[in-house]
Amino acid sequence: MYRALWALFRPYRFILAFAVILQAIAGISSLIPWIAISQIAVAPIEQYYYWMIIAFIGGLIWLVGQTLALYLTHQTDNRLCYHLRLKLLNKLGKLPLNHFTQHGKDGVQQVIERDVRALHQLTAHAPADIVQLIVVPITAALILLFQNGLLLLFCLLPLATSIYLFKMMQSPRYQALYSARNETIAHLYEHYAELADNPLLARQFPEKSIQKTVTLALISFQQAFERWISKIGALSALTQLGISTTLLSLWVILGAWILPEPTSLAQIILFILLMHSIAAPVAAMGHGGDALNLAISASQRIEQLLELPEMQYGEKTLNATACDLQIEHLSYAFQGKILLSDINLHIEQGEFIAIVGLSGAGKSTLLQLMARFLDPTHGNISLNNNHFGTVTLPQLSLNGLNQQISIVMQNTQPIPCSLRDNLQLFSSHSTTEDIHHYLEALNLLPILAQHPKDIDSIVGTDINLSGGEAQRLAIARTLLSPAPILLFDEPTSALDPQNAQRVLTLLETDERTRVLVTHDLNCLTRVNKVFLLDNGELIAQGTHQQLSEHCLQYQQLLSALEENK
Question: In order of start, what are the domains of the chain with their CATH numbers?
Answer without folding.
Answer: 3-306 (1.20.1560.10), 350-372+397-563 (3.40.50.300)
